[in-house]
Amino acid sequence: MKKFISAVLAVSAAALFYSCSGNINLDGKWEIVSLGGEAVEATETDPYLEFNTETHEVHGHTGCNIMNGSFSQDGKKLTFGNMATTMMAGPDMDLEREVLDAINKASSVKSAAGNKLQISDADGTLLMELQKK
Questions:
Q1: Distance of alpha carbon 99 from alpha carbon 102, whole angstroms
Q2: Coiled coil located at which positions (predicted)?
Q3: Over its length of 133 residues, how does the chain's per-residue pLDDT go in tens digits?
């Protein structure tokens, strides 16, 4: 019986360790619902990020322009690279600037209640919150 309990505890501890140290699943399309703790107002084209974890590519929309680039994830560490956008004028260029600033400052990601992700900077300040679409 002691061996059985020890085995169950060992498996439980390993599962807990793996879930805490593994990558958060970013795959798919995520609507940007807040920036800097403020809710994003609905626009003609709502801003979003779409992650492909196989190719480490990210595609999205700033609310004004399309963006594409790459990302790197190691556990909770998240960074973006080689981001490019189209260069059209849009109805809310301030929203675009906020989205791009958040992407440039991104350092970490964590899961949040309600099937959301929170992306923060190196100091732990919340930059943006994403909701799975």
A1: 5
A2: none
A3: 555 454 433 434 333 333 444 789 999 999 999 999 999 988 888 999 999 999 999 999 999 999 999 999 999 999 999 999 999 988 889 999 999 999 999 999 999 999 999 999 999 999 999 999 8
H or E element, residue 117: strand 116-120
Cβ neighbours of residue 132 under 8 Å, at least 6 residues apart?
A: 28, 29, 30, 31, 115, 116
CA angle 32, 37, 39 (to 5 degrees): 50
3-class state of residue 50 by DSSP: strand
Predicted TM-score (pTM) above 0.85: no
